[in-house]
């Protein structure tokens, strides 16, 4: 498995989210629930809306310019648990440039 993808999910559940945000490029694009957020400030605002959850990575496969992970997510939200796909694209220095989350 791509260690950068594993790192993303490890940092997503940490109590200190500073390292989580540091893994994104300054102009990164996150698309979740059909909404796009570009840049660290927008990503911080988006992440503030995400409830505490647990992630279980099912698999990771190459996908065009990046890699896609199928992930089971459980938490205190309607319809839990769900399986979502997380498509990642990375910069040359290993930071996330694009993250697309879809059912």
Automatic annotation (TrEMBL):
Limits of the SnoaL-like domain: 5-97
Organism domain of life: Bacteria
Protein name: SnoaL-like protein
Source lineage: Bacteria, Bacillati, Actinomycetota, Actinomycetes, Streptosporangiales
